[in-house]
Design brief:
Elements (H helix, E strand, L loop, with lengths): L16 E7 L14 E5 L5 H12 L12 H9 L3 E8 L2 E9 L5 E9 L9 H14 L5 E7 L6 H7 L3 E7 L1
Parallel strand pairs: 5-6
Antiparallel strand pairs: 1-6, 1-7, 2-3, 3-4, 4-5
């Protein structure tokens, strides 16, 4: 039996920049509606296994690493938190993306994670998905501010997408 070894080269940037953006008031005029073929549903009841799967499915290609070492128990606790809510996006029967909203102080909602599944990132669905995340954030009674952070390791259009929806840069960190 012959084995072929492959050499994979991964380019890790020497540095990255993290951008913090906020939307202090709703801006429906900048949030495109979902295309008719796309459906966004809240995950109820919460399902930690699904959230973990979504996190890796969407985030592995963008070097999301903050939850890589989380245990099953940590995932269960995280998803059981009533200040965290999750939505999935589908086209037909196909999962195409998701987002999580987190509001620990009952007034400031963070778009914790938002992204499209591999193969769906260049289908012009990112703007509508973000628009829906913003609508859900502002529709959560008591929300007075929505914020998000992204970085130069995310999809090349991520920062521009947030800004196109009216989100304003308020802080930036070199990492």
């Amino acid at each position: 039996m012959r084995h072929v070894l492959c050499r994979v080269t991964v380019m890790i940037p020497a540095s990255c920049t993290t951008f913090y953006l906020e939307l202090p008031a709703p801006r429906e005029d900048l949030a495109p509606a979902l295309p008719p073929r796309m459906v966004v549903d809240e995950v109820t009841p919460p399902d930690w296994r699904l959230n973990r799967r979504l996190y890796h499915l969407v985030g592995d290609g963008w070097q999301w690493e903050d939850l890589d070492e989380a245990t099953d128990e940590e995932w269960q606790k995280r998803i059981a938190d009533p200040t965290l809510r999750t939505w999935t996006a589908t086209v037909g029967d196909t999962l195409v993306g998701y987002f999580e909203l987190h509001r620990p102080d009952h007034v400031t909602t963070e778009i914790r994670y938002l992204g499209l599944c591999p193969g769906w990132t260049d289908q012009k669905l990112g703007g509508p998905l973000l628009g829906e995340a913003l609508r859900k954030a502002w529709g959560w009674p008591g929300t007075r501010r929505v914020w998000v952070h992204t970085c130069t390791l995310d999809h090349p259009s991520a920062l521009a997408n947030y800004q196109a929806r009216g989100m304003v840069l308020y802080h930036q960190v070199e990492c």
